[in-house]
Design a protein that fits this description.
The complex is a heterodimer of chains A (296) and B (154). With 296 residues, chain A is mainly α. Chain A is built from 12 helices and 5 strands. Chain A has a 3-stranded antiparallel beta sheet with strand order 1-2-3, with no helix packed on it. With 154 residues, chain B is an all-alpha fold. Classes of the chains: A mainly alpha (296), B mainly alpha (154). At the A-B interface, β5, α10 and α11 of A face α2 and α5 of B.
């Protein structure tokens, strides 16, 4: 009996240790950004490519108000409603006091300065693939934006999803290195892949999700119902999207489809961001979309 | 027993008939307002093809398309946008239900379109550069209204 009990304790301790290894936040090494300095002009492009304003600007903000990243937009999901935090330059309410490494940990690892996990509604599963130099440039650009004192609101997420430690398990399952569309890509297609899979986080909407909210990379860009919302995210693999490259570039620039209907919903915001990139970046995304495996 | 099934079948047909009549109200109004939009799309398509260099610039055709866009903005469409004709009641429409319950500022969006269409009307016949310059604000004015008034398509 006593032997059995001892075995039980050993298993328990091992279990806790393994769980902690899986669940603990895993920040970047302290010297990950050694030697990098931020260029705010390059950072501005990263900002628009990443679509930060679409989520962190105030509700329905347009034009210059998009640069006031005071948070407050709400994101309903099957797990509860998340509220975008203030990431303006305010040192108290926002992230004005953050270091480059703090932002890199948030975007590349989903870990806060206090070493807690972020919820993946902040699309770090995509941003994790961004170059650290780009994050450092983005940090430099964010530092040029206005400060706003509006405090961040709490998420309305119930038990058990409000336990941030359990997100370690989610990250273990779904935070993956490496590109989804692999193989022999031209330099242009690789640029498009970087913009679409990492910064532009197209998959966060266009890829169907499993019951745990992870992207089903085997059905990359195949579309699916909007979680906790109306309508569908369209399939943008070559199986459904038969537009020419010129058509795709036009759509990402003006929002016009080949029939001159216009992009609506969240995609209208994505288009406003993409329109700020150089034309050859939009052409690169179009070239990449043609290389995505067709999926019904 | 057979009678019961026939009765059940008839009742089902009657029920689905009633339900579909209820599920698809204001079909004609919706068709008409979508028709006006398709008319706009076709006309802006003429201008867009010239702006993109897909077809050669033609002052007369450009002017005609721009005039048509301006005219389309002068129609009184109030009879087509009736409460109970949103996507929530009839999935053929992409109009948001909030259009009929809240003030989304759609009047201002329509005015933006009219202004942009008039600018195009003034520019379209006078050369490709002017047409291209007027295209940006015109395109934005279509999307600007769609963003507030419609649910995403697909």
């Amino acid at each position: 009996m006593r032997r059995l009990l001892r075995l039980f304790y050993i298993v328990l301790i091992l279990g806790v240790a393994v769980a902690w290894l899986v669940l603990r936040p895993n920040p970047l090494p302290d010297d990950a950004l050694a030697g990098m300095t931020g260029d705010p002009a390059r950072g501005e492009l990263i900002f628009w490519a990443g679509g930060c304003a679409s989520c962190h600007a105030g509700d329905k903000a347009t034009e210059d108000a998009k640069l006031v990243l005071k948070g407050g937009q709400r994101f309903p999901s099957p797990f509860g409603t998340f509220v975008a935090p203030n990431i303006s330059n305010d040192p108290e309410a926002g992230i004005g006091a953050w270091s480059d490494l703090d932002l890199a940990n948030a975007m590349a690892r989903g870990v806060s300065p206090k070493r807690r996990h972020y919820f993946p509604v902040f699309p770090y599963a995509s941003y994790a693939k961004a170059d650290l130099q780009d994050i450092v440039d983005l940090r430099a650009y964010l530092a040029t934006l206005p400060a706003d004192p509006t405090p961040s609101e709490a998420h309305e997420v119930g038990f058990p999803f409000n336990i941030r430690l359990s997100l370690g398990g989610w990250k273990f399952l779904f935070l993956k290195d490496g590109w989804v569309v692999d193989g022999d890509l031209t330099v242009e297609e690789q640029r498009g892949r970087y913009l679409a899979e990492a910064l532009g986080h197209c998959g966060e909407c266009h890829t169907p999700r499993n019951a745990l909210g992870g992207m089903e990379t085997g059905r990359w860009f195949a579309g699916g119902p909007v979680p906790a919302g109306r309508g569908n995210f369209p399939n943008i693999t070559p199986a459904k999207l038969d537009w020419s490259n010129t058509d795709i570039v036009e759509y990402l620039t003006s929002g016009f489809t080949p029939e001159y209907d216009s992009a609506g919903g969240h995609m209208a915001l994505v288009v406003q961001n993409m329109a700020r990139l150089p034309a050859n970046d939009r052409a690169a995304i179009a070239a990449y979309l043609k290389r995505v495996p067709p999926s019904e | 027993m057979k009678k019961f099934f026939v009765g059940l079948a008839l009742a089902t047909i009657a029920f689905t008939g009633a339900a579909s009549a209820q599920e698809a109200p204001f079909a004609k109004q919706i068709k008409a307002r979508q028709g006006i939009m398709v008319y706009r799309a076709l006309n802006i398509g003429v201008l867009g093809a010239m702006a993109k260099g897909e077809v050669e610039y033609n002052a007369e055709a450009a002017q005609k398309a721009a005039d048509a866009l301006v005219s389309s903005g002068k129609l009184d469409v109030s009879m087509l946008y009736v409460p109970g004709s949103s996507n929530a009641e009839n999935p053929d429409s992409t109009v948001k239900p909030e259009v009929f319950t809240e003030d989304l500022g759609i009047g201002a969006k329509a005015a933006d379109f009219n202004t942009a269409a008039e600018a195009m009307q003034a520019a379209a016949g006078g050369g490709l550069d002017g047409l291209k310059a007027a295209m940006g604000p015109l395109g934005k004015s279509c999307g600007g209204c769609h963003e507030v008034a419609r649910i995403p398509q697909n």
